[in-house]
């Protein structure tokens, strides 16, 4: 065994970028790279240049020799009467090959094509991802809880001609009709001038169709019927350049158009394999459960690609964590012998609130626990450690983003001290820094907050925004770039969009977004997307989305809307704004309140001051408003919401 200290020292700055060889060597390459990092065209970094590999081969085929009869995935359906399914590596291999054959033979999907999925938490989702990876096609999963319109928008942006969906799935005891959203997605894409030609529909209960939405002749096909024609087919994995895109993951930003974050094959897979190994501490004999949705980056990296690259057993759960009672999660952990547990603060808050003593009733033992996606309050952290983890598990609080591929800030489990409410230092090979607005470094221990940035590129960083390279440079690199002509990566720090403070011990505390993004229960929502959805209601003249503190979800959305001249506020208008948001984005974005106000606080140049509205909403007080064009509106709004609350 290599001495641990020595190994970690290899990631100190003097060894950058060579240190990332340690991660790349966890993978099986068809041909090795000649250049670890090509930074000649900042900020479009290229990792492991010259290398070739296939991501599906790395997550499936290469484990067959030693682990073919062990579980790759364990899927727990929501209804407790349904049997848990273990899918061995051999079976996963078979399923992935057959579905790859459907995509290629039946749909004509070729290397480089985009395929959009709108799939819930069912094993067909990782099968579909790996099938695309096998072909070198680029998958783009849209979170199942998003609306059909949001899915259609993303499919049009990615110009996907194939949409893979499911008839229904279970959530909180209901069989949700999901296929209907595919019809909406096709219609929305059409409005955007893009055609989805084929909709592949998996059936939750093969042989019986659980949706009310009619199958459209020539467009919609049941996957189980298509698979019957490909039974036993083997499709050779396509050897891809390390730099070939593996998938797109859409996220929200400062405009209404979502950003398709493009992740690479070699750099991404190496990074998630490495961080899964050292920060999730996953060993092949662990049963690892990341209780998150694969529709978000956490699930891509730490349910599918990272754990499967390491050949471990990854648990997937279909439904709601507290269904049918708040002991469900712990019951699953006990039954499956889960040793590593990973979830988001929003789930932890809910389980703590609904069943504070439930963990004590179940005999599971975690050696390791992870939290991700939002700041975790110290008292919630303590419950996670003491009650859920029974004081036995090491906890890592991992800070990162859709754009990053894998963890950026975390402690090394059991090797670096835990600190409730803080994500710890930068992870191996990541050198974070806090800058003030002028680009001066904010020193650790100064107590001053600033913008957290990463000084160096890393293999998991996304390559670009699909189809919007200028937006990529502008959003993430322009703010602190020292010289746009420079070819030196030192001049191109990555701007994360989060506020943070660094303590004297080097640990970071993440304060939250500094841009127009609201993080609701760990889901990123763009204020512009929410506002555009509200403006689809005919009566609305202006809209502003603001975050409010919420006990369970961390943050929730409140919408402020003003009406076109001559119109009167009504409950009906408020309801229709909420419905428009459901329709355009999805139920997760549903506002906590919709306030119809006479006007918005504005600057003299007419810009709506969301910050002022958020202060009224959260604190009732806004400080000095003398620079507003209409300071009197602040009192109006305050009275309005106080009289209603
Ligand atoms: O504000 C940070 C918050 O979530 C944002 C990223 O959201 P998303 O791209 O959806 O990815 C979430 C899962 C990786 C960040 O900009 N965030 C993420 N992790 C943490 C966090 N805030 C505090 N602590 C964390 N551990």
Automatic annotation (TrEMBL):
AMP-dependent synthetase/ligase domain mapped to chain residues: 61-462
Pfam families: ACAS_N, AMP-binding, AMP-binding_C
UniProt entry tagged with the keyword Acetylation: yes
Residue intervals of the Acetyl-coenzyme A synthetase N-terminal domain: 18-59
Keyword Transport: no
Domain (AMP-binding enzyme C-terminal) ranges: 529-607
InterPro entries listed in its UniProt record: Ac_CoA_lig (IPR011904), ACAS_N (IPR032387), AMP-bd_C (IPR025110), AMP-bd_C_sf (IPR045851), AMP-dep_synth/lig_dom (IPR000873), ANL_N_sf (IPR042099)
Keyword field: Acetylation, ATP-binding, Ligase, Nucleotide-binding
Any one GO molecular function term: AMP binding
UniProt xrefs under PANTHER family: ACETYL-COENZYME A SYNTHETASE, ACETYL-COENZYME A SYNTHETASE 1
Designated name of the protein: Acetate--CoA ligase
Signal peptide segment: none
EC assignment: 6.2.1.1
Organism this protein belongs to: Prauserella isguenensis
GO terms classed as biological process: acetyl-CoA biosynthetic process from acetate
Similarity comment: family membership: Belongs to the ATP-dependent AMP-binding enzyme family.
């Amino acid at each position: 065994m290599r001495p641990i200290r020595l190994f970690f020292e290899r990631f100190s700055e003097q060894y950058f970028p060579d240190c990332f060889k340690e991660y790349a060597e966890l993978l099986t390459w068809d041909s090795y790279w000649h250049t670890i990092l090509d930074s000649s065209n900042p900020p479009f970094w290229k990792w492991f240049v010259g290398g070739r590999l296939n991501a599906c081969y790395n997550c499936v085929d290469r484990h067959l020799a030693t682990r073919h009869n062990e579980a790759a995935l364990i899927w727990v359906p929501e209804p407790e009467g349904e049997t848990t399914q273990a899918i061995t590596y051999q079976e996963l291999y078979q399923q992935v090959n057959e579905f790859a054959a459907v995509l290629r033979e039946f749909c004509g999907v070729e290397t480089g094509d985009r395929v959009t999925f709108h799939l819930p938490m069912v094993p067909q989702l990782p099968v579909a991802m790996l099938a695309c990876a096998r072909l070198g096609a680029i998958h783009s999963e849209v979170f199942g809880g998003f609306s059909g319109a949001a899915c259609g928008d993303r499919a049009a942006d990615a110009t996907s001609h194939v949409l893979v969906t499911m008839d229904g799935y279970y959530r909180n005891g209901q069989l949700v009709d999901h296929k209907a959203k595919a019809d909406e997605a096709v219609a929305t894409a059409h409005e955007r001038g893009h055609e989805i030609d084929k909709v592949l529909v998996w059936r939750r209960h093969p042989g019986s169709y659980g949706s009310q939405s009619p199958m459209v002749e020539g467009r919609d096909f049941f996957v189980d019927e298509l698979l019957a024609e490909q039974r036993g087919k083997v499709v050779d994995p396509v050897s891809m350049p390390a730099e070939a895109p593996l998938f797109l993951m859409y996220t929200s930003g400062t405009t209404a158009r979502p950003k398709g974050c493009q992740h690479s094959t070699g750099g991404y897979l190496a990074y998630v394999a490495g961080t899964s190994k050292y920060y999730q501490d996953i060993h092949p004999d662990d049963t690892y459960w990341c209780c998150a949705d694969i529709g978000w980056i956490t699930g891509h990296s730490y349910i599918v690609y990272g754990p499967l690259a390491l050949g471990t057993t990854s648990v997937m759960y279909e439904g709601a964590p507290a269904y049918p009672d708040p002991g469900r999660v712990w019951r699953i952990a006990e039954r499956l012998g889960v040793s590593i547990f990973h979830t988001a603060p929003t789930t932890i808050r809910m389980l703590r609130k609904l069943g504070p003593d439930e963990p004590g009733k179940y005999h599971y033992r975690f050696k390791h626990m992870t939290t991700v996606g939002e700041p975790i309050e110290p008292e919630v952290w303590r419950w996670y450690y003491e009650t859920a983890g029974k004081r036995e598990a090491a906890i890592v609080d991992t800070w990162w983003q859709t754009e990053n591929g894998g963890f950026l800030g975390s402690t090394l489990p059991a090797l670096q001290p835990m600190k409730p409410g803080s994500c710890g230092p930068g992870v191996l090979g990541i050198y974070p820094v806090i800058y003030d607005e002028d680009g001066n470094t904010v020193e650790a221990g100064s107590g001053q907050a600033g913008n957290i940035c990463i000084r160096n590129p890393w293999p998991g960083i996304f390559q670009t925004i699909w189809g919007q390279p200028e937006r990529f440079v502008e959003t993430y690199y322009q703010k602190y770039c020292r010289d746009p002509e420079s070819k030196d990566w030192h001049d191109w720090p990555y701007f994360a969009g989060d506020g943070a403070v660094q303590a004297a011990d080097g640990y970071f505390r993440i304060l939250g977004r500094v841009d127009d993004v609201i993080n609701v229960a760990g889901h990123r929502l763009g204020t512009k997307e929410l506002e555009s959805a509200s403006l689809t209601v005919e009566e609305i003249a202006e809209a502003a989305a603001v975050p409010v503190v919420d006990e369970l979800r961390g943050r929730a959305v409140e919408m402020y809307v003003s009406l076109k001249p001559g119109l009167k506020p009504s409950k009906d208008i408020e309801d229709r704004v909420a419905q428009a948001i459901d329709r355009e984005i999805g139920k997760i974005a549903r506002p906590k309140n919709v306030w119809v106000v006479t006007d918005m606080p504005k600057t003299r140049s007419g810009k709506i001051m969301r910050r002022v509205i958020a202060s009224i909403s959260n604190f009732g007080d806004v400080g000095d408003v003398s620079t507003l064009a209409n300071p009197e509106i602040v009192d109006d709004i305050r009275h309005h919401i106080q009289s209603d609350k």
